[in-house]
Write a structure and sequence with these properties.
Length: 492
């Protein structure tokens, strides 16, 4: 039978740079092919090349969709395929969904673009029901009113809107906790068999792909280095890089001090968000995220916070930093943070720093690395140019980045390198406490291992304390001395 998708010696160039070289793969009907590799390996570019979603992309080789050559297809034909016979599920639904449109309009635009013959309202309700969402409660919501799992389900509904033959799922579960991730992938597998769909599953997580793909293609530096049936890849990998992707995140945090010194203590911490309704947005109630939670963290140790999406992990971090309102006592280095004004809090912000989940969003794309590092130093430590340069280079050396990268921009680094930059930015201020909010969730296994080893080395050398927030139990176990498991109090 003719394969649904076949790439033969695919080459991709963008702005004069070779991104993918001689990549070949074959996806059969009603099957799943896993495309796996580290950040910057060319996985996403390969998926986007199928319907030339990136402008100015120069292609070589063959792209066959159900036997039809797409490399020379005109723009009108490609528009018919995008969202029609070929559906896309993008990595980050917050970026892919329009924040100004309700769910009904988002899906309705796809149906209208491809001239769906029946009732659009009935089809939208059918799609939402198909992906496990209640139409009556979801149709009129904006994306910010949905949880991470719900947004991803809306993306799946949009990808299935026009009965595609092929679905390209690019990291569809990266930012989701294990429970939601499994339910999303189980849903995709069920829909695939029910609707006779073939799926190209792009991921950096080889273990995740194992349960859902019949065959796997491994990419590195824009080239396919290994491919084969899933079990063959796992039982007898041929390439050293493939074997490295299969290694567990085994690590051991440094032993705590014999006489630990209390750095952070939260007593009966409660966090709630107001529920506003009506034209005048009157407060009609509160959504309680955290209720009377108590915990502590000692100098030079790591406390892991684990729980599903929406359980309040990030809210705890924001409350400690006094970026959101909370009740209860928050003590840091002998100071009661909950009693400080915003002005009184400013001098302490140097000692309390946070590394966010997505470094690409938290780093200013218009600033060079030198300016990114200098910004915090100028605000908190020094205005002397030579001193700022010295401290910036010192921070880069600590995270293993060369000083000659100072004039590069964030987009010129890989995902793992960007996370190192985010860590260097806060290390330059020599903080006492680092809050790590999902710092490894968007990284491949190799980069995850490097970041965890880096954090452990810095903790040993600098006696840093970490509040490590994650939904990845393996990563938390590798880094933490103590672990707190959270569960959602109200709703999903």
């Amino acid at each position: 039978m003719t394969p649904v998708l076949e790439l033969e010696r695919l080459n991709i160039c963008l702005n004069g740079k070779q991104l993918v070289s001689d990549a070949s793969l074959r996806l059969e009907r009603n099957s799943t092919l896993g495309l796996v590799g580290e950040s910057g390996s060319g996985k996403t570019m390969t998926g986007l090349a199928v319907t030339r979603l990136l402008p100015h992309m120069q292609l070589g080789g063959k792209i066959l969709f159900c036997g039809r050559e797409l490399a020379d297809a005109n723009e009108a034909e490609l528009r018919r395929l995008r969202g029609g016979a070929i559906g896309y599920i993008f990595q980050e639904p917050l970026s892919a969904l329009n924040p100004l449109h309700r769910v009904s309009r988002q899906i309705g635009e796809l149906l209208a673009t491809h001239a769906w013959p029946g009732s659009h309202g009935e089809r939208i309700a059918e799609l939402l029901d198909m992906v496990g969402l209640q139409p009556a409660r979801t149709l009129n919501k904006f994306q910010h009113e949905l949880s991470g799992g719900q947004r991803q389900r809306v993306m799946i509904a949009m990808a299935l809107a026009n009965n595609p033959r092929l679905v390209i799922a690019d990291e569809p579960t990266t930012a989701l906790d294990y429970q939601i991730r499994s339910s999303i992938l189980d849903l995709l597998r069920d829909l695939q068999h029910r609707l006779d769909i073939s799926m190209l599953l792009i991921s950096h997580d080889l273990e995740l792909v194992r349960d859902y793909a019949q065959e796997i293609v491994i990419m590195r530096s824009g080239r396919v280095i290994e491919s084969g049936e899933t079990e063959q890849i796992f039982t007898s990998p041929q390439q050293p890089y493939t074997r490295e992707l299969l290694l567990p995140l085994a690590a051991h945090p440094p032993a705590p001090a014999a006489e630990p010194k209390r750095l952070l203590a939260c007593d009966k911490l409660s966090i709630s968000y107001p529920i506003k309704r009506g034209i005048f947005k009157r407060v009609v109630g509160h959504h309680h995220v955290i209720r009377e939670m108590s915990f502590y963290l000692d100098t030079g140790s790591t406390l892991g916070l684990v729980g599903p999406s929406g359980c309040g992990k990030s809210s705890i971090a924001l409350a400690i930093l006094r970026l959101i309102v909370s009740s209860g006592n928050i003590g840091f280095a002998g100071v009661k943070l909950d009693q400080l004004s915003r002005r009184a809090m400013r001098p302490l912000r140097r000692d309390l720093q946070i590394v966010f989940q997505d470094p690409f969003s938290s780093l200013n794309p218009r600033m060079t690395l030198a300016r990114i590092l200098a910004e915090g130093l100028r605000l908190h430590l020094s205005r002397d140019v030579q001193e700022i340069t010295r401290l910036s280079i010192e921070a880069l050396n600590q995270v293993g980045l060369p000083a000659d990268t100072m004039e590069r921009y964030p987009h010129q680094f890989s995902g793992g390198q960007r996370q190192r930059i985010a860590i260097a930015r806060v290390l330059a201020l020599k903080p006492k406490l680092l809050i790590l909010d999902e710092p490894t969730s968007s990284l491949d296994r190799r980069a995850q291992r490097q970041i965890i080893e880096l954090l452990l080395r810095l903790q040993r050398e600098m006696q840093l304390s970490y509040l490590f927030i994650s939904h990845d139990l393996e990563a938390v176990k590798a880094l933490s001395h103590r672990i707190i498991t959270l569960d959602a109090l109200e709703g999903a």
